[in-house]
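Exercise 7b. Backbone tokens:
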């Protein structure tokens, strides 16, 4: 029987879904979870020498190809410009996100943490506004009472995917350690869909997959209190440790 659970991931640019968390999205999609991606911009500033319009068209095509590879059910663009998200009207953007949450009613929402992993202003803005939308949607009954909000946590996976050293300050509560070992080939293929971004693992997917971290990590931001740590975003308990800014699985 197919799983009817719903996961909503809200990010800023094309490739944000594949490089740091593609394994997680592929895993839940393969399990039958309805995965929906919201991308605030089309990455219009992301290709040197191309106009914003041209770059946006290219990157939208790349994102849709990556989403198909990962098994994402639907992709929604919010139609903001790359690099200008922090200047967007917050009330309008929060209302857009709340409307999508009302339609989708996800049990799990994922976005960046407050530091945006890389500190990119668009990442920081979408984290803040998604958090506000989640809180308001929950208060108004637009989400299931059991819904959870997760922030992407700095880890070896984000270091590999984003190419920047992770922040030492982690926002949120318990850590979710998602084993993506069986989905690394799919993650590589999705990363390679973003050809304009010169993906860091350009070789044969089966070979490149052996170089990637087998876990992706998320901090539970809402609810703010939960027992223990988890390996299933929908609620299975698990324990992890943190060493040197990178999370690792604590063996029993």
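Sequence design result:
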């Amino acid at each position: 029987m197919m799983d009817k659970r719903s996961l909503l991931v809200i990010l800023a640019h094309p490739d944000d879904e594949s490089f740091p968390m593609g394994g997680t999205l592929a895993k839940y999609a393969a399990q039958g979870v309805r995965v929906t991606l919201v991308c605030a911009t089309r990455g219009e500033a992301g290709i040197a020498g191309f106009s914003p319009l041209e770059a946006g068209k290219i990157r939208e095509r790349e994102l849709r190809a990556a989403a198909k590879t990962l098994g994402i059910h639907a992709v929604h663009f919010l139609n903001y410009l790359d690099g200008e998200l922090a200047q967007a009207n917050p009330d309008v953007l929060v209302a857009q996100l709340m409307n999508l949450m009302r339609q989708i009613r996800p049990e799990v929402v994922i976005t960046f943490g407050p530091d945006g992993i890389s500190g990119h202003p668009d990442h920081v803005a979408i984290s803040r506004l998604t958090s506000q939308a989640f809180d308001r949607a929950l208060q108004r009954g637009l989400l299931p009472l059991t819904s959870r909000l997760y922030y992407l946590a700095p880890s070896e996976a984000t270091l590999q995917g984003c190419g920047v050293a992770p922040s030492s300050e982690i926002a949120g509560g318990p850590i979710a350690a998602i084993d993506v070992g069986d989905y690394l080939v799919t993650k590589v293929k999705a990363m390679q869909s973003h050809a304009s971004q010169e993906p860091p693992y350009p070789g044969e997917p089966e070979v490149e997959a052996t170089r990637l971290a087998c876990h992706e990590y998320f901090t539970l931001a809402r609810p703010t209190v939960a027992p223990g740590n988890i390996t299933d975003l929908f609620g299975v308990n698990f324990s992890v440790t943190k060493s040197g800014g990178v999370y690792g699985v604590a063996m029993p």
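Instructor comment: Confidence is low (pLDDT under 50) at residues 237-252. The longest strand covers residues 34-41.
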